[in-house]
């Protein structure tokens, strides 16, 4: 590793620490309004400014990370999952800064910063070493297509953050009618999903820190194109204790964990994708650790998380939040169209000889585009503004994340190199 | 439903008008719940083209496609359909399979029952299916009709706007202000106009009434975007025009030249070049694996200029283009593009340079070039004449143990030569297997022994490449190490596709990065009524109004102007 890359990874850690500090400052700005001897507006303004400046410093460190890694690695760091996710986090920060400068809303920071922190932590799950470019990526369009697509998605992420605040803001904690209870439950469910993702990250990093590993020998039978059965034996490595072992596999080595000597189950045979068993195991661990985490939070708070956050959001109007969310998406939509569809088509035409080939990644970029088109058109109709469009913005971001991560992990296709 | 659409201002509005085209007074009180809610300002409340009193069948179709609700449903169905197509691989990616049964078997074997159902439902061909293409065509239709239905009335409404609007129209906008003005009304309006002009509004004043407008062009953004999408979709359809679209594959070994079917071009691969990353260039988790750095085909493109259609004669070719084709860098010539698709590592003999030798002494009488494709039939070597009597490029035996060739590829070439010359009565028959491996050598020796037993030769001669291995290199043998697969494409619709995409992009930027803002105000008996509207970013509009009022002596925060909030 050369000096640039060492410097770069230090800048990355600095950025991460500053983002965490900024998040804490935002939390104080939002949650500390009613602390004793305080003028709420002045308190929020003061801590909001501290938080925003810290976030700006973090972003500067993040930029430093990006450009020094570019110099040290010899190519733009957007070529694998680690690099892309860190870039996405940087783009979300940029989108946040732009939207913040328009609307000056402290709450937006309090919700965007944790999103950025989660994405950076998720990036760190993947190997962070610089990998040389494969021929298909070695082209000027890697710089243009990936960055613009990510920037468009970053604005969608900010739109998602604002929509989530809006949903928690409009939740009625006292109502007992069906629609109100349903809205409350679904909003709480959104938070549970986010905590499960945090649970996933916690599980991965705790077991990685403890040096846990298990290994399996998996035998798989593939029917090749001539109709011949080909048996192949693969070794599958686990970083989390195996609750589920890969289908048709034997243990090579396994450290016992809390009385877990043997895997409890075997993955079903129809899960035959790449490393399906390990992915299933990871999902199970994420849900377990996420639910434990959520349970602890409930124990401490003794009420739903929505009810914990809601009281801090009362001094902003849902209409303002909806406008921020809509504006962020409206800024992101043309950028996304340009980067993820038009630039993608131009590059595909040069590299793969066709501008469109219904590759899963292409299809999902189109699905994202169509989904946000639906969002933009629905907002023209009466009755689709407000909470409903906030839900659309939340679902839209799920579609974005599936396009970015889900397609690579579950479906693969031509963009499969971006998987690891 | 027949309504009296004449407004109290005397203007006769078309059926379906929500707000009077002239003064802006809301025409249906009953549909507006209560008089305090902000007005529905879509398309300025004008009637759309499709809103007719007495619809005929064509009007009904028109009105079906003109509905935004229908458009949203179409987009949503397309979205769901497209994502269903990504559950399992599409048939188009399985290039080795042909028949429906093969595909059905593949899906069942690979994905089980779910795969079988997927294939049976036709989802394995989602993007070519009638329903998916149908959805796209319907979206195209909807784009055209929705746009036409709205853009013309909207254009009319925006190009002849009345300055003094109905009071109800003003006070029911999303941004409103009412208050007393102490100054002389016209002077105040003139001062406000001055402020608005500074903010780059276009301002019209009519006594104590004023209209200020900014960025009207952004209203055309969505329609320009839709025009771009229509051009794009039409360009995609245009690929069906004969000769506009070509997509085929050519496989070439190094040195091979092949005609491109359907054209009078020939393509030749001079050399295939594969580079791998060195171990020290790789990341830790890649070390020890082969990671390709570059693969390219040094290619030449020829055009046939004479004797192109006579299979018995060699065509006359002229080189027109030369390019090292690699991923991201196709060869291009007059709309024809050759792309690097993939490659196969595969040793293929091109030619050998054997010598005719004396078996006993190992002395060479001379040597000759022997091509694996279309070998010459006679050779002069020293004093001898060699005639090629049989050639098996891919030597093997058939059911009755007779020699045959399994294919036309020189995988295991075998030559049968007849040698004549000084000291030979008639001709002697020898076999020659040029591949440098043990089984070829065995074949050659046993066949020659068989010929000798049958009296066809004396065993005097041997065919062999002299000193084949020198300093670790093969001499006297030319071979290709890689076969390259090139994708040959013609796509005459591409320019239109890019034009469509560019128009669409311009429309998106116009529509999303500028907002049409309008401010109406009038002073009646010293009472100022101000209303303002924008289709996007009412936050910015409120800031504009608040600062204008502030500079003319009325202090108000942007928040107080928000009519939606006042309702609650």
From TrEMBL, chain A:
Membrane topology according to the record: Multi-pass membrane protein
Keyword Ligase: no
InterPro entries (alphabetical): Cyt_c_assembly, Cyt_c_biogenesis_CcsA/CcmC
Every Cytochrome c assembly protein domain range: 79-196, 320-415
Keywords of the record: Cytochrome c-type biogenesis, Membrane, Transmembrane, Transmembrane helix
Places the protein is found: Membrane
Subcellular location, principal: membrane
Keyword Membrane: yes
Chain ranges passing through the membrane: 6-29, 50-72, 84-103, 108-126, 146-168, 189-207, 283-301, 328-350, 362-378, 390-414
Name this polypeptide is given: Cytochrome C biogenesis protein
Organism the protein comes from: Cohnella kolymensis
TrEMBL record, chain B:
Record localization: Membrane
Keywords: Cytochrome c-type biogenesis, Membrane, Transmembrane, Transmembrane helix
Main location: membrane
Membrane-spanning residues: 70-89, 130-152, 223-241, 496-514
Membrane topology annotation: Multi-pass membrane protein
Superkingdom of source: Bacteria
Entry keyword Ligase: no
InterPro entries: Cyt_c_bgen_Ccs1/CcsB/ResB (IPR023494), ResB-like_domain (IPR007816)
Domain ResB-like span(s) in chain numbering: 68-545
Protein name (record): Cytochrome C biogenesis protein ResB
